[in-house]
Design brief:
Layout lengths: L19 E4 L3 E6 L12 E6 L1 H11 L4 E8 L2 H12 L3 E8 L6 E6 L5 E6 L8 H5 L8 E5 L8 H15 L3 E4 L10 H14 L2 E5 H8 L5 H9 L5 E5 L5 E4 L5 E4 L12 H15 L7 H15 L11 H9 L1
Parallel strand pairs: 1-4, 1-8, 2-6, 4-5, 8-9, 9-10, 10-11
Antiparallel strand pairs: 2-3, 6-7, 11-12, 12-13
The structure holds adenosine-5'-diphosphate.
Length: 329
Amino acid sequence: MTAGTGSGGRDGDVGTTGPVLAIGETLIDLIVSDGSPDLATATTFEARDGGAPANVAVALARLGVSSAFGGVVGDDAFGRRLRGVLNREGVDTSRLRATAEAPTTLAFAWKDDRGDGHFSLLRLADRLLTDEDVDGFGIPGLAGIVVGSVALAAEPSRTAITHAVEVAAAAGVPVVFDINLRSSLWPDLAVAAEACRPIIERATVLKASLDDARALLGVGDDPIVALRAIAALPPRIAVLTDGARGSYLLDGEGEPHDVPAFPVDAVEPTGAGDAFTAALVSRLIARDWAAPDIEDVRYASAAGALATTRPGAMEGLPTQAELDEFMVS
Ligand code: ADP
């Protein structure tokens, strides 16, 4: 079953079930393309559509799940471009507001001499999401909401996201929190942890990378220790990811499982986590939000792996057909 088909929604649902709504930032990624290790020397940039929640909305649509995006762009060319991309992907953009108060958000990305990725956010329209926007989202009728921590790092979007999560939780709408922590956006990690706390308290699903767990929970490098730490938090479902090293979940007996990553020729890791989250959500909807099993996490891992094989966070997201083919190959 997919969300939005109106057939067999959550128990007690009457009539149609709305889409899964990803809320937060959509932006233009400006990626250094001349090999410069630093913005000070960069001369050439490639413009790509992005923003983690927008990527999740596109990934859901490609996987056949009815999806929508809620956020704010500028009333400008980049804002129109992002709305057009989302529309073409089949994402409902009726909750995407264009504002004259700020231009569309930009993010610069580059790799240093060691190949480590860096990110600098020029935070503009995306942070202007308000409680009033959220009240117009129709959250009680949705199949679920997906949020991340980037929108929590500025106001008024932090308050708005927190409000969205409160409304969803009160209405029994599943909340998926893909932490996706960007430490450069926060004055210190204690402030980030404080902003994430009310979301974690109400989330149904927590998806954390090992880096997220290290930063927010102070765990070390052992993924099983990190998994147990996130599983001890309030969300009923917790999954840990660690890039090419794989993903981890606890089974019904509390036993940890290491789900190895699929071996692929990775071109660019951006978007892997977003593809993983979307594929996990598609499986959770199919099982009416019961706890995922190893096969569900393998499916999500396959989506993550495929996303790394093509450049661009959004362009690289797999379709359901590609994912099904990859799983049987
Ligand atoms: P995030 O982008 O949120 O940090 P990860 O990088 O941990 O997320 O990636 C999510 C999942 O995608 C991983 O658990 C893994 O299954 C898959 N994945 C990511 N990078 C690779 C890779 N290089 N090769 C194969 N699978 C990958």
